[in-house]
Amino acid sequence: MDSNELKKWVVENNIRQRTTEGFWQCFENYKIEEPDEYNEYFNNFDEDFLILCMSQVALKIRNWDKFDEGYNENHEFVEAYLKLEYKNKYIGYYSLLFNFSGEEFDDYFVLE
Fold this sequence. Notes:
There is one protein chain. The protein is of the alpha+beta class. It is 33% helix and 37% strand. A four-stranded antiparallel sheet has the order 1-2-3-4, with helices on one face. Strand 2 and strand 3 (89-98) form a beta hairpin. The longest helix has 19 residues, at 15-33. It is elongated, with a radius of gyration of 16 Å.
């Protein structure tokens, strides 16, 4: 897949919107599951101060040494990254992983 194919795939699969929606769903779960950490990073949270920036979309192959010729969504996938800034400070990222059919299969919410 070349970069133009990837760009077309991103638009056709609505990756930007789906990644943003995935972040908000993950964020709501985070508030409930990790209240102490949430309060440490987001005390008196104000959504107006949170900036989500789609910083990368990457075609990835992982576990290269175990890679075989057949497609395997655990080894070949597209990863969309949202850079997170809160109150003008970089705080981490959210990434959502998609198989080539456009289905979500994993995500990461990382605070630094």
